[in-house]
Amino acid sequence: MPLFDVYPLYNVTPVSAKDVHVYDDAGTEYLDLYGGHAVISIGHAHPNYVQAVTKQVEALGFYSNAVQNPLQVQLADKIEALSGCKDYELFLCNSGAEANENALKLASFKTGKSRVIAFKNGFHGRTSAAVAATDNKNIIAPINAQQQVTILELNDIEGVKTELEKGDVCAVIVEFIQGVGGLDQGTAEFFEQVDVLCKANNTYFIADEVQSGYGRSGKFFAFQYYKVTPEVISIAKGMGNGFPIGGILIHPSIEAKYGMLGTTFGGNHLACAAGLSVLNTIEDEKLIDNVNAISEYFISIAKTIPQIKNIKGKGLMIGLEFDFEVGDLRKKLIYDEHIFTGGASNKKLLRILPPLTIKKEHVDQFFEALKRSLT
User: Which portions of the chain are predicted below pLDDT 50?
Assistant: First the structure.
């Protein structure tokens, strides 16, 4: 049976990986500066992760959410302790799209409204409401287009104010650092005014931290660079270091009700064990400190390369913008230099999303390879 052909594939077949390196079926070593879409947070096959997942699957991999699961409580407590999001509550699911879907559903349930405000170049997933709030008509099917979504420009505070005052908006959803869209950010003034307007208009402010969360931005969450209090925070990607897990953090002002949200696999024992190992490693190895140190070093070198016209993002969520499309450059980096990087909807942007364990020597390796590829 052939695979349904929806992914353009590079001719590389990884068979193993360790920390920041991936190895293919010919034994070639690749430097991974993309982390499988920012999923690999604590490095491939980290010993803590391998041990935790192995131990848990040997004991109990799965049972339903109809029984007690102390691992979910441990995970929630650890997220609260490391993120500083005091008194939020946690609902666990399986992916970033599912996290955003539940965030939007919760906002609609609680406000009694149905329209969503999202932003140009935003990406929130491929499920029904999440994809409708994504600024890409090519992935929105007619069944998704029934959702009521208004797409505005980032920093258009007057547009946000006008739409919110119509009284039918349940949620404003935003990436504080856009991922697929190309690492663009709103201003502090914009984000902070949106937060105020949402609270004045019975509208939930949803922070999509699926890609930017878990320390990647240099803080635990990217919204923490600003004076805002999201009603809902969506998380996934780096949360499980490769194991499928997602969730939403829900403000304590929002009351739960049986049956409001649900999932079969979300928060299963194996997922929680993986998630706990990630948080313990981030804490024990001081990986957020490493993010900030390596980011500063990376950007300082990037500024010396004349072909790089703009540097976007924060922490280890970095975009290098050129004055040409980077598709061929990415191929050179993969096939000639054996380095994985990422693209974006901005075709001139190279996206850098390495494991948070990356060291200066790996940054040096990348820039030497980049210089060769540019010449």
Answer: none
Pinpoint the residues of the chain covered by CATH 3.40.640.10.
48-284
The tens digit of pLDDT for each residue in 75-85 reads 999 999 999 99
Per residue, what are the HEC states of 288-332? HHHHHHHHHHHHHHHCCCCCCCEEEEECCEEEEECCCCCHHHHHH
Nearest to 239 by CA among 179, 288, 295, 282: 282
* Domain 14-46+285-374 top-level CATH class: alpha beta
* Spatial CA neighbour of 147 closest among 129, 171, 164: 129
Mean pLDDT computed over every residue of the chain: 97
Q: What are the structure tokens assigned to 272, written together? A: 């929680």
- What CATH number is given for 48-284 in this structure? 3.40.640.10
User: Which helix (H) or strand (E) segment is 170 a member of?
Assistant: strand 169-174
List every span in the chain annotated with CATH 3.90.1150.10: 14-46+285-374
Q: pTM (2 decimals)?
A: 0.97
DSSP code for 48: H
Decide: 311 and 291 in contact? Cβ < 8 Å.
no
